[in-house]
Write a structure and sequence with these properties.
With about 180 residues, the protein is mainly alpha-helical. It is about 75% helix and about 0% strand. Helix 1 crosses helix 6 and helix 5 packs antiparallel against helix 6. The longest helix is centred in the middle third of the chain and has 36 residues.
Length: about 180
């Protein structure tokens, strides 16, 4: 079933240069835009845009230090943990398994779980725990990134699903941990 779903999504690539450009944009460029928006969201959420002095910055950090640490820690931990898990499973990428696949760009290393999916799903749930309205945007962005990476031929659906599950679990467990502090 993993193979059939992969071929369904990969079937959207190599149809036209415009579609391939969009797939590569969502798989490679859009993640940087999402991280930038995440940074702006954090500055907005923690009211750093309204700070006028160093004393106010120190006050904000002391007041909300758990939430301030929670956000980057969760997404960073999801990325690092997925990298370790990849070394355990040693799952090859689709273009290494299926010889009829020419990916839209090359990726190196093992595929399962997708570090991009783990990172961006953790990011989505971190924001969801802080602010539901913005959280939905980031979760949908994670879905776009994951699907685009399947369409590009660098991940199979199970890699993406594994990354999503890992990202959610890391964000949720970190949320519970930091909530107790």
């Amino acid at each position: 079933m993993n193979k059939e779903i992969f071929y369904y999504f990969f079937g959207f690539s190599n149809i036209s240069k415009e579609i391939d450009y969009l797939i590569v944009f969502f798989a490679e460029t859009f993640p940087y835009i999402v991280v930038f928006i995440f940074g702006v969201f954090l500055l907005y959420y923690f009211k750093f845009f309204s700070v006028r002095s160093l004393r106010e910055i120190v006050f904000l950090i002391k007041k909300d230090w758990e939430k301030i640490v929670f956000a980057p820690f969760s997404v960073g931990f999801a990325w690092i943990l997925s990298s370790f898990i990849k070394e355990i499973f040693e799952n090859p990428r689709p273009f290494e398994i299926f010889k009829d696949i020419t990916p839209l760009f090359l990726e190196t290393g093992y595929a399962f779980p997708s570090s991009h999916s783990a990172f961006f799903m953790a990011l989505g749930f971190v924001v969801l725990f802080l602010n539901k309205k913005f959280g939905y945007f980031f979760i949908i962005s994670a879905l776009f990134i994951g699907i685009a990476r399947i369409m590009a031929g660098v991940h199979s659906p199970i890699d993406i699903i594994g990354g999503f599950v890992l990202g959610f679990l890391v964000a949720y467990l970190c949320f519970l941990f930091f909530k107790r502090l």
